[in-house]
Amino acid sequence: MSPRITAAIAARVLTQLRRDHRTLVIMLVLPCLLISLLWWMFDDLPGDTFDRLGPALLAMFPFIVMFLVTSVTTLRERSGGTLERLLAMPMGKLDFLFGYAIAFGLVAAVQSALAVALSVGLLDLSIEGPVWLLTVVAVGDAVLGSALGLFVSAFARTEFQAVQFMPALVIPQILLCGLFVPRFALPEILEAVSDVLPLSYAVDAMQQLTTSASTGEVWTDLAVVAAYAVAGLALGAGTLRRRSE
């Protein structure tokens, strides 16, 4: 793995994204629009519904959007023959994957900063912990989505098949992450399943920041999310194919 080649891949992806205005809008604007829509839905209801759901939404939306965009974009590179040409050069699979991860990670940082600024600054989401750490957790969620998207793209032959992985890998995590039912209140088997799903730790970190100024558990949860992201990239390197067959 060469840092120079990895940086070149990242720069190439960022250049492509800068020219693809539709994808940029999806990645940067869509999470903010969805959070605003849900805030509007709950604004006139009694209680603090948005304060209760907002942290989970900040964890979920970057994760979902980056998973979809990354899986489809990587598959498009392979099906179009671009990946085959790149790997014919003196470049390893890790160079390709980490280059993509860096590029999408930078976009994820901007995306998460916008979502957090909107939620805390304009929508009055109540938090006890530092705002910058809330942003770091959101970035980690988005990078996790990118890593899993890179991983699943190796098993799809069409963009439609890439999207079909969402019900298998993303929706179960949304259902069991604590958004609808607290994880400790889930049936014993489902609670055990939620304990091995990375989005559960992302949501736990977000909720901890909104209820307590203590950050010890947040860093532990963030480390788990980062470990899953690295594992996703490593598995992606092992399963990456040069082109769709």
From TrEMBL:
Location in or out of the cell: Cell membrane
Residues in ABC transmembrane type-2 domain copies: 18-243
Keyword terms of this UniProt record: Antibiotic resistance, Cell membrane, Membrane, Transmembrane, Transmembrane helix, Transport
Membrane listed as a keyword: yes
Main location: membrane
GO molecular function terms attached to this record: ABC-type transporter activity
GO biological process: response to antibiotic
Any one annotated GO CC term: ATP-binding cassette (ABC) transporter complex
Signal peptide: none
Positions of transmembrane segments: 24-42, 54-75, 96-120, 132-156, 168-186, 222-240
Topology versus the membrane: Multi-pass membrane protein
Family assignment from sequence similarity: Belongs to the ABC-2 integral membrane protein family.
Name the UniProt record assigns to this protein: Transport permease protein
Species, as recorded: Nocardioides immobilis
